[in-house]
Amino acid sequence: MNSSNQKLAITRRRFLALATASAGILAAACGADESPDFSGMPALTERQKQVLEESADVASAGSRSTRVPLPSQPLKVHPLWSTFGPTRGQYRGVVNRAGSLDEAAPRLEMVRFRQAVDGNTIGRSIALMADTEPLDLLVFPAEALQDLEDNDLLVPLDKVSDVGEAVKSENYWPGMLESGRIKGRQLAIPLQAGPWLLMYREKQLEEYGIADPSDLPWNAEQFSENTSRLTLVGGDSKGADQYGFLQMVSTDSTNISISVPPSWVWMVAAGSRLPDREGYEEALQEPAAIAGLGVMNDLINRHRSVYKVTRTTSGRQIRGLINDRRVLMMSFPVNSGWFLSTWRDAVSNDIQLAALPGGDRRRTPTEVHMMVGVSSWSEHTDFAMAALANMYKSVGDQVFPSAVRADLGMMATVAPALNPADTVAIQAALERSQPINLSKVEKKLLTERLDSPIALEQIAPEEAAKGAAEALLQFRIAEQNRRNRPPAPPPGPPPGTG
Q: Are 167 and 177 in contact (CB under 8 A)?
């Protein structure tokens, strides 16, 4: 075993030895009153079994007293950015609130945002530095979960202790808790949801005699017809004179990988499943998926209601489009920190919310901006578990919408600029939520295989979907082979020293 892997294994033995002792603290923090029940859960991996067998402390850990002093230093919380996600202040608010919930709460300190280094993934970058920097909790988007697990950075919550209310699926919006699972193992709990909704200028739609979509959500045909009526295209190739709907795409897929809304948002809105973490790549070719791709294809190639993003397009320009009166409809996650104050402020009620177009099976495409997991490198696993439970209990005070159903009533307090109609629309959307669990690299692959061909080459949705499904399957096979590959042998002695 090389030195990096050896350090990792030793650390995992250390935290698992402490794991059972954490049950009392975490159960108290969550209000649990029952013993753990792991029946029906998949067995530990061979690596996890080996770690447990090698740890002589596990058998006696449960009898240890949990009434121990809090750590002298705050636990370290490392955040990872979420695309279209919260502001830095919102991350900090969640951490600070959980760390001051009561006198028994472990103190928390949010450190700098992690960045990938030297061509590594963010998970590998963290793993390489974890033995030199304290790391107790990770707050991250769902798209990072697989990468973090691949690098042995997270404690499986269901095997460590009874985490009480924090791992009960009914306490969250549909699909939210499952976003924190890989192969049945609960590795993280969700904190914040980001639903994609149709955002429209009510008065302008009334002027065109178009019925309000919040009263009766449109199907794809109605959306297409209304977009056509609202879009005005002149002779200028730089863009439409008026955008019925603002669909953004990249003009150069080799340098930029962006599409807003992306293809998978349209597919979910149409009622399609997405490939899950364990497979089902053929979902990309389902009739509902093709219907969703057809909506995006019509926007770009039929109605020409498309804004083309280049390498020189700035974030300020994109934010400016939200207040541009030529844009009559658009879609973003409604709580994205970087533009929330642009579409809804204390004096403006111009933009309203409704469900994206779809059929009877429509779902709400939902980002999971924030999840929290306990680091396998923590020196204080028991207290990190208690801190995780405190985040579950207090996140609704700091962000909207929380992934926790019970926090719904706090939404207007956390975001006072929202009007009553906003909160009704967001609640209705979350009742039908379908979280987007694709990894960051998988999203890039789909953008290159779906969005870009449809936008730049006018490839038919059926053909693009077939190619994307095949490419995703081959990518996942290659990734699985890589994960199953044994670790590299330790380096030999330098020449002449053996």
A: yes
**DSSP-assigned letters across all residues of 56-81:** TTHHHHTTS----PPPSSPEEEEE--
Burial 96-121 (b: 16+ CB within 10 A, else e): bbbbebeeebbbbebeeebeeeeeeb
CB-side exposure of 493: number of CA atoms within 13 Å? 4
Convert the pLDDT of each residue in 167-210 to its tens digit: 999 999 999 999 999 999 999 999 999 999 999 999 999 999 99
Alpha-carbon distance values, 294 to 245, 291, 465 (Å): 15, 5, 11
Residue with tokens 């997991």: 373
Alpha-carbon separation of residue 349 from 393, 402, 486 (angstroms)? 32, 23, 58
Helix, coil or strand: residue 445 = helix
Q: Where are the alpha helices (DSSP H) in 31-121?
A: 46-54, 58-61, 88-99
Burial of 89 (0-12, 13-18, 19+ CB in 10 A): exposed
Q: How far apart are the first and last CA of the chain?
A: 19
206, two tokens: 């009334």
Residue 199 forms beta bridges with which residues? 330, 353
Over the stretch 46-105, which tens digit does the pLDDT of each residue have? 544 443 443 333 333 333 334 568 888 999 999 999 988 888 999 999 999 999 998 889
Distances (CA, A) of 182 to 156, 159, 487: 10, 13, 22
d(CA 144, CA 80): 8
- Record the pTM: 0.83
Q: Could you tell me if 166 and 317 are in contact, meaning their C-beta atoms sit under 8 angstroms apart? A: no
Written as one letter, the residue type at 422 is D
Cα 366–215–202 angle (5° rounding)? 85
Answer whether 300's CB lies under 8 Å from 243's CB. no
Residue 419's nearest CA partner among 469, 361, 354, 345 is 345
Q: How far is CA 176 from the centre of its chain?
A: 10
Measure the CA–CA gap between 317 and 248, rounded to whole angstroms.
12
Residue with tokens 């490939």: 275
Q: How far apart are CA 153 and CA 277, in angstroms?
A: 18
User: Residue with structure tokens 């808790």?
Assistant: 177
Sheet order of strands, 259-260 included: 259-260, 247-250, 306-309
User: CB-based burial of residue 73 (10 Å sphere; 0-12 exposed, 13-18 middle, 19+ buried)?
Assistant: exposed
| 255-to-214, 310, 312, 442, 444 alpha-carbon distances in Å | 38, 9, 11, 17, 12
Residue 214 near residue 424 (C-beta atoms within 8 A): no
